[in-house]
Design a protein that fits this description.
The protein is mainly alpha-helical and 248 residues long. The chain folds into 2 domains: 12-77, Winged helix-like DNA-binding domain superfamily/Winged helix DNA-binding domain (Arc Repressor Mutant, subunit A), CATH 1.10.10; 82-247, Up-down Bundle (Four Helix Bundle (Hemerythrin (Met), subunit A)), CATH 1.20.120. It contains 10 helices and 2 strands; from the N terminus they run H-H-H-E-E-H-H-H-H-H-H-H. It has helices at 12-25, 38-45, 49-61, 82-98, 104-125, 128-142, 148-165, 169-190, 196-211, 215-247; strands at residues 65-68, 74-77. A two-stranded antiparallel sheet has the order 1-2. Helix 6 (128-142) runs antiparallel to helix 7 (148-165). The chain is elongated and about 65 Å long. The mean pLDDT is 85.
Length: 248
């Protein structure tokens, strides 16, 4: 049940939205359940319909409710979609990086720790399909005809296959921001200085360790890969600074 509380402070619409959001998050309102009508909500909260509409707009912006027209329409609780949640998470992470809220050392540390966990679980839970997908991405990375953009995409798919090999949906959701957002950002910086063969060789060593279910070896290879990427990132930043200095 929702506890319909009378709101007496100034942020009326926001408080109503927060109250309804809490009911949704706590499961007191179920996915696909229709909310009371605007008139009913206005009566229960003791506010006007425009205030209720503003509260519902706030919930819609958070992808928590969706309106539906027609005789059976109304405002319904959105059923969670893992893909949409992952994209939202990834977008937020990219925004934080672009605004300088995260630096590369933080990103590199997070990738190492989180992907290390994934390597350990992947070594235990991987299937032949996961291994085949990793091998296919390595082949693309080694192809001289592969463009830088295609190389980056193959890099993302390789690490995504490791995450999926963990067999853990929650880890997959959390790692979406790390793999789908952080990996391309790093590649955008280091693509002029990196050696693609060096990266492909490390990916192959990582695949071999996971195939043998050798978790310790997989983490060691990942550590070497992240160290290489961190070093190349530093080199790219130095070159950029030197170029900008010569042009000033």
């Amino acid at each position: 049940m929702i506890e319909y509380q009378n709101i007496v402070t100034t942020s009326v619409a926001r408080q109503i939205a927060d109250n309804l959001r809490a009911a949704i998050v706590e499961g007191r309102i179920k996915a696909d359940e229709r909310l009371p009508t605007e008139d009913e909500l206005a009566r229960r909260y003791g506010v006007s319909r425009p205030t209720i509409r503003e509260a519902l707009k706030r919930l819609a912006a958070q992808n928590l409710v969706r309106s539906r027209r027609g005789p059976t329409g109304g405002n319904f609780v959105v059923r969670p979609d893992a893909g949409e949640l992952a994209e939202t998470f990834s977008g937020a992470a990219m925004l934080m990086v672009s605004m300088g809220a995260l630096d590369h050392d933080e990103i590199a540390t997070a990738r190492l720790e989180l992907q290390g966990m994934c390597c350990r679980l992947a070594a235990a839970n991987r299937t032949d399909d996961h291994l085949a997908r990793m091998a296919a991405e390595i082949a693309i990375a080694r192809d001289p005809a592969t463009t830088d953009a295609e190389f980056c995409a193959a890099d993302v798919r390789f690490h995504r296959a490791i995450v999926e090999a963990t067999g853990n949906g929650l880890i997959g959701l959390v790692m979406h921001a790390v793999v789908e957002a952080m990996t391309p950002i790093t590649n955008m910086v280091i693509f002029r200085v990196r050696n693609r063969t060096e990266i492909a060789d490390r990916h192959q060593a990582l695949l071999d360790a996971i195939a043998k279910r050798d978790a310790a070896r997989a983490v060691a290879v990942l550590t070497d890969l992240m160290t290489y990427v961190r070093d190349q990132y530093g080199e790219a930043i130095k070159r950029r600074a030197a170029t900008e200095g010569s042009q000033s």
